[in-house]
Amino acid sequence: MSEPAVSPPPPGFRLRRNLPAGAAVAVALIGLLVVILLGRPGNIQPAPEPLAADQTFSFPIAQDVADFDPALISSGADVDILRNVFSGLYRFDPKLREVPDLAVGQPVVSADGLTYTFHLRQDARFSNGDPITADDFIYSWDRSAAKQGDYAGLFGVIAGYPDVASGKAAHLSGLGKLDDYTLTVTLGRRAGYFLTEAGLWPLWVVDRRVISSAGDAAWFSRPDTLIGSGPFRLTARTPGQSMDFAPVAGWYGGKTGALTRVHVEVMADTAAQVAQYESGVFSLIGFGRQPLAPAAATRYTSDAKLKDQLSLVPAGTTFWIGFNLKSGPFAAVEGGRAGRRAFNEAIDRQALAGAVCNQKTTCVAATGGVVSKGLQGYLGDGADYNVKFDAATAKTEYQAWDPDGSKVKGLTYTYDTNAFNQAVCENLAAQWKKNLAVTVGCVEVDRRTFFDQRNGACAYPMFRQSWAADYDHPQDWFDYLFVTGASSSGSCYSNPNLDKEVSSADAALVTSGTAGYRVAGFMLVNDSIFGGLLYGVQQYLVHPYVKGAGGNALYDNDWTGVRILKH
Prior knowledge:
The protein has 567 residues and is an alpha+beta fold. The protein has 2 domains: 233 residues, Periplasmic binding protein-like II (D-Maltodextrin-Binding Protein, domain 2, 3-Layer(aba) Sandwich); 226 residues, Dipeptide-binding Protein, domain 3. 28% of the residues lie in helices and 18% in strands. It has 16 helices and 19 strands. The strands form 6 sheets. Strands 11, 12, 13, 16 and 17 form a 5-stranded antiparallel beta sheet that branches. Helix 9 runs antiparallel to helix 11 and helix 15 runs antiparallel to helix 16. The protein is globular and about 75 Å long.
């Protein structure tokens, strides 16, 4: 929208015409006096929040933190807790925007897109006071890549990674420094998504001095040696039972917020969690992607007096039907398209959600493409026209594609053992029987066999598929799921046009946006490559006097923004 040629009058302004000269002067003087005494309307400050004397933030987690070492973290729950203890070049704000942390502004990128130069804050310190320099990042990244944790592959775009991953080298050749506060990173190939990866946990910085003195296998096991650069530090821990954190005095990032203590209780019993919440012991339930007990979620979402305490946000997870594009009735992009589309249109997603989503407190119907709502690459509400339920059209299209039923004779839908997966399959099978007159068998296998057969051999004609985003970039979805040879595909889908689009988008700088991935996303929709079903939902049960708690599609809110009001 262009700027109007004439600005509107300020709020509260009224035109005064034909006032006598004396009256006009009087009005002006009165207005000046009001401004002097009361200040301009825009400068009126809100009343300060009445904070409680006890600023303890407490919550339960179902399982204890498995890994305190950033190089080995593999659980989203562990990430949400430890992102308050550790930090990296960048962090993600509540709207998932990547903002500088230990870096100063954005990097300088070479003309060929391969070398990133990061300028570091010169006032940054670890929680024990040790300065943070470029050498700390080089040490941390070399160490993390060599550890080969579950997410070590995030270093894969940095030059020299294959040699470190195989143990042939201890140093990523792409890492260097111009001085103590200027880090250089050279990639082996153009990868605009690398800047997003630079804010993730394997790339957090650790204190090499502490690790050297406390031991590489033990430094993270004690509060006095678990040293990070985040706004909080671990002060006490009883393994399997509880953890306590306190703000770091003199934190380089500025104010650590209102909290004076964060208490985490390990409690597997979700009903007991709710009881403790309702008695005031816990400030909230939901931190670390902790789910609510189903009965509690239903009660809080349906009770008018309680529902304000329950907040539901996208969870960065999508569930869909995978179709085998290599063999079976749905094989080939063109040859199986009509069948895949008919099976899609024969599903009432709202009915499915009603059956398996616990009154939409755990999931909702997926209508906007494979990338989850709330993340970059989401196509928009209703953008996937394949999910529009139309039983009559679906049956007509199916019968034209398979007039004698021979293509789908003995058709099965395979899933790994899980009550939710079973409920989804049973609902889908009932809908296909009703709307297409096709019998589909539900086949349950153990998790290991399922993944080995699905991902390694594309063994199932139709199967359960899902993805939980690791980070907010479409590359995380397309490179692992849909490009030719994708490691987690299960469908053996191969489309040179999509490969080309994704490759170009992967190489583009972040500032270029995600247009290429949107094109690829619509290719999947147009060819009915997948059958979108549900998007995950994250629940937060929060007391009215707890402010700033909650989260987004990937992360819980930072502790620095949480405060406890008088109650």
